[in-house]
Amino acid sequence: MIFSLFFLLSLFVGTIMADTECPIVTSSGDRRQDKNKLRLVQYNAEWLFIDYYSSANCPGSGCSWSNASEAQTHMSYVTKVIHDLNPDIINFCEIEGCDELNMVKSMLNDATYTPYLKKGTDSATGQNVGMLTRIDPLVSLYRTEEKYDYPIQGSQCGYTGSGSTGVSKHYITEFKLGNMNVAFIAAHLLAIPTESSRCAQREGQASVLQPVIADYISRKYEVIILGDLNDFDGEVLDVNNNKPTSQVLNILKGNFGEYAGKYELTSVAESVTQSERYSDWYDSDDNCNTQSSKDYSMIDHVLVSQGVLNKIDNVFFYHAYPESCVTYNSDHYPVVIDFIDI
Mind telling me which SUPFAM superfamilies this protein's record contains (predicted)? Predict the structure, then answer.
């Protein structure tokens, strides 16, 4: 009943203050119960919108949740997953704003979390990336507004047009984790892995982020880059051996592009059994058959530098709920990384 009143109030406020952001770090604290351990979660929560966003008509016919009641139910499902996982830092993709982060925090009834979100530039969907964290970042969340021309040199996407792109949904910040200075880069790249124009544009987006990574590495930072990258890893194959047509993962890892060989990032999924490497369900054959071999893939990734990799104790994909056309759960699964001595 209390949440219902809070939810109705948020709808009223949301008509005035939709797409709220909260990028500013105003305090420094570490609210973990065990400061020797850290659980990091990457989660595309699938249209985690409560405030009405008119450009996407969401909640409504423009997204997965056709009305406010469905959106509220979806949030309760997402919150249960977070409660079960109990992360110290969780990065969300497809979240609308800080209103939603605060609602999740309220539903968790957990004052140890602080929300941070830097609003992006995807005005069509209104989707953003943001986090709840028990460790405050060292710097306020920021973005790069650099652009990159595509197709990039050496692209094999098959796109014959041309354009310039930025990264509409991302943020950058820094943490002190143990003795390490860590750059933390969260991104949600353009969808549809093998479509030629999207492939080419996504390579451009990765090329925007690559110099950010290289700069941090040159300044002796460790790096974590995570998010829904909407592409496959040609080295760490997923459950269905999906292979990329793009160089997106290779660019971000430091294996391709202008900064190739200047740094090296590793996918945390390499330590996960291949049969468990899937983070997304897509009804590819439009028949709601979740047993189709085509329907599962790994497009959510966490890439780390060696110092961070050395602190990993365990990695898994949280597959505790079934996917279907009628579920209120997300169409993605969380990626979970447990660190020790950090």
Answer: DNase I-like (SSF56219)
Total domains in the chain come to 2
**What digits encode the pLDDT tens for the residues 288-311?**
876 676 899 999 999 999 999 999
Instruction: Mark whether 166 and 306 lie in a shared domain.
Output: yes
Of 1-10, 30-39, 63-72, 275-284, minimum mean pLDDT range:
1-10
**In terms of domains, do 169 and 256 share one?**
yes
Residue at 162 is within a domain: yes
Residue 28: alpha-carbon gap to chain centroid = 24
The answer to whether residue 1 scores a pLDDT higher than 80 is: no
Scanning the chain, the segments in alpha helix (DSSP H) are 2-17, 68-85, 98-108, 196-218, 248-253, 306-309
pTM: 0.94
* Residue 80 covered by a domain: yes
132: left (phi over 0), alpha (psi -120 to 50) or beta: beta
**DSSP assignment letter at 276:** G
pLDDT at 19: 56
Residue 262 domain boundaries: 137-320
Q: For residues 218 and 263, give the distance between their C-alpha atoms in angstroms, rounded to a whole number.
A: 9
Q: Could you tell me if residue 266 is inside a domain? A: yes
Helix (H) or strand (E) holding 7: helix 2-17
